[in-house]
Amino acid sequence: MDFDEIIDRRGTHSDKWDMMQAKYGISPQDGIAMWVADMDFRPPACVTEALNGMARHGIYGYYGDDRGYRASIRWWMKERHGWQVEPEWIFTTHGLVNGTAMCVDTFTEPGDAVVLFTPVYHAFARVIRAAGREVRECPLVDNNGRYEMDFAAYDALMTGNERMVILCSPHNPGGRVWTRAELQDVAEFARRHDLILVSDEIHHDLLMPGQRHIPMAHIDGVEDRLVMMTATTKTFNIAGAHLGNVIIADEGLRARFAKRMAAMGISPNSFGLFMAEAAYSPEGAEWVDALCAYLDGNRTLFDAGVNAIPGLKSMPLESTYLAWVNFSGTGMDPAEFTRRVEREARICVNHGPSFGTGGEGFLRFNIATPRARVAEAVERLQAAFADLQ
To answer: Distance between CA 135 and CA 118 in Å, rounded?
Structure first.
């Protein structure tokens, strides 16, 4: 659990580090990668040992008998989230972007609209549009640096062409942990407009102290239209496993999804299954607890440094490791503040507009990296905006 260790990821086919030059024109030799949402930490030792065990055995054949894998998911959801999952509810996809695409493919038709509460994870809109569906944006309300929902406004935006709503819970990029009342409002909105509700809860384990995530499965009145999505990949930094779970309690929805999965010939890769089963364990839980405490320290350091720069405001982070920084108070246009971050501070970040309506004026920073690197990023940002201070 040495999260302070600087691990050189350059030259390892890391999207986050080895694609900096191509995508940003920033060399990994002196730039800081704070864009792609994976962590610069090793996963818990139990995950590495699972892979080492596979290597020692030396045969990498088809994976069979997944009862242990399903049992580990059930144990984790019960122990960490108080959610009772039955083994037959679980489908395994190639990550949750693939899971999202499969839901869009299964439960909507070309020309249908899918509702997103924006700004939100950019891959949602990408797969919706690629599938020939329409994105119906319902902008979140920025209430003094805290995102909230306005369902009266959202009701007025509905055209009757909507068939699905995708909720990001906890929220990426804003870091909100939605309250029970807010989740109940989402459920009632889905029922009111007869929408399939897909709840992407990939960040549900990454909570700041004092926060409690409530699975959408705990909300009454939505059972017949709910699709839950979870994964080990974000929690344990094993995104390269491309493994996610679509969990469906309703028998009718489950039958439809199973039929589409079969038609697509989708089956999981064995490396990810071994890693996930090892991660969902008491040792994995201990590692996550230590990780969240460390991320809280990074959050405190980053927010203090960024918020000391006039015109910059980091949205209070309740979950995830993704800081959402508002630059609109600088009076600069996006081209100028982005230039300063990328050209002067030499930090690679995600651009706010890619997250949809409401993302204008923002940049997203990944703070899941050793604290010394977070401190360096803060120093670079303060230097890049020194004229404001």
So the answer is: 10
